[in-house]
Amino acid sequence: MKIIIIGGVAGGATAATRLRRLDEHAEIILLERSGYVSYANCGLPYYIGGIIENKQDLTLNTPESFSTRFGIDVRVHQEAIDIDREHKIVTIRETETDRVYREKYDKLILSPGARPVQPPLPGIDSHNLFTLRTVEDALAIRQFIETRKPKSAIMAGGGFIGLEVAENLRHAGLDVTIVDLADQVMTPFDADMAALIQAQLKKNGIHLKLKSSIAGFEETETGIRVLRKDEASLEADMALLAIGVRPDTKLAEKAGLQLGLKGAIVVDDTMKTSDPSIYAVGDAVVIRNAVTNQEALIALAGPANKEGHIAADNICGLEAHAQGSLGSSVVKIFDMTAASTGLSEKAAAAAGIDFDRVVLSPLSHAGYYPGAQSMFMKVVYERQSLRLLGAQIVGYEGVDKRIDVIATAIKAGLKADALADLDLAYAPPYSSAKDPVNMAGYIIRNVSGGLMKQFHWNEVQDLPAAAFKLDTRTEAEYAAGHIDGFKNIPLDELRERLEEIPAGQPVYVMCQSGLRSYIACRILMQNGYDAYNLSGGYSFYSAVM
Ligand code: FAD
What we know:
Elements: E1 2-6, H1 10-22, E2 27-32, H2 44-48, H3 63-70, E3 73-76, E4 78-84, E5 89-94, E6 100-104, E7 107-110, E8 114-116, E9 129-130, H4 135-148, E10 152-156, H5 160-171, E11 175-179, H6 191-203, E12 207-209, E13 214-219, E14 224-228, E15 231-236, E16 238-241, E17 245-247, H7 250-254, E18 278-280, E19 287-288, E20 295-296, H8 301-315, E21 329-333, E22 336-342, H9 345-350, E23 355-360, E24 376-382, E25 388-395, H10 399-411, H11 436-448, E26 453-455, E27 468-471, H12 475-480, E28 487-488, E29 506-510, H13 515-525, E30 530-534, H14 537-544
Helix pairs in contact: 1-8
Bound molecules: flavin-adenine dinucleotide (FAD).
The site of flavin-adenine dinucleotide (FAD) has 33 residues, from helix 1, strand 2, helix 2, strand 4 and helix 8.
Protein name: NADPH-dependent 2,4-dienoyl-CoA reductase/sulfur reductase-like enzyme/rhodanese-related sulfurtransferase
Keywords: FAD, Flavoprotein, Oxidoreductase, Redox-active center, Transferase
Organism: Catenisphaera adipataccumulans
C-alpha cells in the first residue's frame, strides 16, 4: 500500500508514524510545503519572545529522524498542487526549484491545517506586518526583533495566539497594544471571565483597544500605521495579524471533495472524506462539538493529533471513530492561567440550552499551606438534567488540572453535581480535602436540590427595590469596599440581629467568596426568609464589573 500525506505537522506527522507502527511494509510519503516537519506551532510564540532560545527546540522530528526511525519518506519544500482522484495521482511542486512531478497513491491523507485570516484590507501586504503559522514566520519575526529592535507592536486580534504573542513581545521589551473588534479578548470565554484576563493584560502593561475595527495598514518610515474605522489610527514599529484562522482547503476544493462549514472538508467519523480513498484531519476538517453535537471548527492540536491516529487506524483496518471535541484549551497570560472546556454560557445560550451556572473562587491548595492563590471557576450545566456543559477557570496554580478533571467528567457523562463525589488526590501543597472541583459539585447540588438559591453579578443592579440586601462580611471588609445598598451584618452576628431584616421580602446576600453568604442564606431560609446568595461573591463582582 502506498500512502501519501499532505501536511507534515500535527495531524499529518501523527498519521504517518501511526501508519508505520501498524504497517511495516507500507510506502509512506509525507509532503510538507514549508521547510520543517513535525514542528511545535504551539511553541512559536515562545520562540519569538526568546523563552525558547533555539530554533532546533521547535522541531520534534526532522526528515532524517523520520527516515531513520520510521522509514518514512519525508519531503519538505514540496507543495501538493493537484489531486487527480480518478487516477489517484498527486501533482507536487518543489517550491525551491519549481520542478513539478507526480506520485501515485492508494490512500491519501490531507492535513493541510488552517491559514491566518488575512482580509483584503488596504496595506495588508505591508512590510512590518506579520502573521504566525510556520517556523519560517517565527524566524522572520524574531529576526526582525533582533535586527530592527522595534520598541512597539500592535497585535491585531485578542485570541489565544494574539495573547501568547503579545505576552512574548512584552517579554522581549516591546510596548504592545492589542486591537480587537470584539468587546472582549478570548471569545471562547464569557465576557465576565475574559474581564479577568483583560485586567491581567493591563496589569502587565499591555494596552487594549476593544470594539475597534481595523480598516487598513500603511507603511511608515519607522514602522506601520494601523488605520481604524471611526477612530484615530495607531502607529508602531511592527504589527502582527492574528484575527483567526480559516481551513486551508484550496487543494481539496480543487479536487472536488465535499466541503462544509466555512469551506472545511467534510469527513465521517473515520475521517474519510467524500472520496473513499482520501482521509482528512486537523484544522481543515469539520468536526462535531461533543456537547451540542453540532458541526464545528476547532483548531487545536489535541483533536488534530487524535484524528491523525484515527485516520491511520482506519486505513490499516482497525476500527476507530472520532468522538467530537470539547475544545478544551489553556493559555498562559504572564503568571496567570486561563482554561476552558465545553460550552460557555453564551455558547449554551446560542445552542438553545436551558442552563444554569455556578461561580466560585476556591484556593488552589489548602489555605494554611504557604502560597495558596484563589482561582475563579465557572461551571455551566443544563438546568433540569444537570448535564455538565462546560467550565472556565482563570487563576494561577492548579487551573490546568481542574479544567482537565472537568473535561474528563464531561466526556464520561457525569452529572454536574457528581463533581462533588470525585475522589481526587489531596495533600496541603496541592489541593484541599474538598478540591475546587468537588466544591463546584457541592454548590451545584445545593442549588439543584433547593438548599440554596443564587443570583449573579450582572443582576445586582436590577434587584427589586424593596428587597433587603445583606453583606455578611466583617466590618473591616465592608469598609474597604462594598456594593451600594447592601447593609452590613457580619455572619457571626446574624442570628442575634435577625430582627433587623424585614420579613416578607426577598433577601439578597453576599460575602467575599460566596461561602459565608451561603451559611447566612441557610440561617435565613431556616428562619422563614426567601434568601439568595451572590454567586462568586464580592471578589468576582468587583473583578468583573
Ligand atoms: P498544521 O499543524 O498547521 O499543519 C499543516 C501543514 O500542512 C503546514 O505545515 C502546511 O505548510 C502544510 N501544507 C498545507 N497545504 C499543503 C500542501 N498543499 N502541500 C504540502 N504541505 C501543505 N493548539 C493547541 O491545542 N494549543 C496551543 O497552545 C496552540 N498554540 C498555537 C500557536 C500558534 C502560533 C499556532 C499557529 C497554532 C497553535 N495551536 C495550538 C493550534 C495547533 O497548532 C493546530 O490546531 C494544529 O497544528 C493543527 O494541525 P494540522 O495538522 O491540522 O495543521
